[in-house]
Write a structure and sequence with these properties.
By secondary structure, this protein is mainly α. Helices cover 72% and strands 0% of the residues.
């Protein structure tokens, strides 16, 4: 009986949070290969199918893939921009050698856009990861521990969040003089973690009271295991939406600050191109130089739209009804006698009754 009771307790620890689409339930009779396939299906294959079946997700994936290709393969295929590559202010679509035209220095606009993309991705990744990791860590610890530690962490969070953003950036830029795009991304999101920490703390407070967390605590599970295995799957929607929102914010902030000339022009990016277009040729008031301003604006808008579309599509990924429908269709493919809702068809039921 002792063995049976321990088995029942272990099984109870894996139920209770079925609402979480990413909570993996272990089966004791499953092989390691089956467990790996099940985890891949839960975390990769099913979300990918849901994203691809949503037109917003499909559009966002395709558009973001184009930018990734532009920042990787494109830098190899497209030559680096250089002064005097062509005639100054050549208009777009007039030459195969310079399909997007040239700027006021004769640099190829396509080369400028392509070779500025890697630095944009470096700023986005560094800033979003920094803000996400710090916000998740502080929110989880404060929400789960509570008490004095919660008060101290939230006081620090609110204090940092209350500092005016632009003056703080100006001070940090003057003190640090950032030239590395990774460092620029972190500085741009220096306050971005505060909102994430607040939101994750509030969600963790609710998760801590759920039955499966109490069962894990009663079984002597460590706090780290409870946070990573029980709390994080529930927080995935907020984490992903925060990452995508942070990426969009870093794009806008970096382009705006480079355009205003606040950040140093130590590396090529789309904001630097916009600044040169406005300062050197008055592209805002000249039709001959308008493409120098419009092309970077279109490229920036395209990446922003890709992240926005993905964020909207991820709402479907975390919708339990949508995931249940995909699971039913998967079971239907494996067993044709099942309807889309996973039940036996009426025709087969009739045949079984006749037999």
């Amino acid at each position: 009986m002792a063995t049976d009771e321990s088995t029942i307790d272990a099984d109870d620890s894996t139920v209770g949070n079925d609402d979480s689409p990413f909570h993996a339930r272990a089966e004791y009779d499953a092989t390691p290969g089956d467990v790996v396939l099940e985890l891949l299906d839960i975390w990769v294959f099913t979300p990918a199918r849901i994203l691809w079946n949503d037109y917003r997700g499909r559009f966002g994936i395709i558009l973001l893939s184009l930018y990734i290709a532009m920042g990787t393969v494109g830098t190899i295929v497209v030559p680096e921009p250089g002064i005097g590559q062509g005639d100054t202010l050549m208009q777009p679509f007039q030459s195969l050698e310079h399909p997007l035209g040239t700027d006021g220095l004769g640099q190829d606009m396509l080369g400028l856009m392509v070779h500025a993309t890697p630095n944009m991705f470096r700023m986005i990744i560094a800033g979003a990861v920094f803000g996400g990791v710090l916000g998740i860590a502080i929110g989880l610890i404060a929400g789960y521990e509570g008490g004095t530690l919660d008060k101290v962490l939230m006081t620090i969070t609110d204090s940092v969040g209350s500092i005016p953003g632009l003056p703080l950036l100006l001070i940090l830029v003057a003190l640090i003089d950032p030239s590395n795009p990774y460092l620029v991304g972190i500085i741009l999101n220096i306050q971005g973690w505060t909102g994430a920490a607040r939101g994750i703390r509030s969600q963790t407070l609710a998760i801590r009271k759920k039955e499966y967390v109490e069962v894990s605590e009663a079984m002597g599970e460590s706090k780290s295991n409870i946070l990573f295995k029980d709390a994080l799957p529930e927080l995935l929607p907020m984490i992903i939406f925060g990452f995508l929102g942070g990426a969009t914010g870093i794009i806008h902030a970096s382009v705006g600050l480079y355009f205003l000339g606040i950040l140093p022009f130590d590396h090529l990016n789309w904001g630097v191109v916009l600044n040169h277009a406005y300062q050197q040729s008055g592209a805002l008031y000249s039709l001959d130089a308008a493409h120098w301003l419009l092309i970077p604006a279109v490229v920036i808008t395209g990446m922003t739209v890709a992240f926005v579309m993905l964020a909207q599509a991820f709402d479907q990924v975390f919708n339990p009804r949508v995931r249940a429908r995909h699971e039913a269709r998967k079971r239907n493919r494996e067993d044709p006698e099942l309807d889309d809702d996973g039940t036996v068809t009426s025709e087969d039921t009739t045949q079984v009754g006749i037999q």
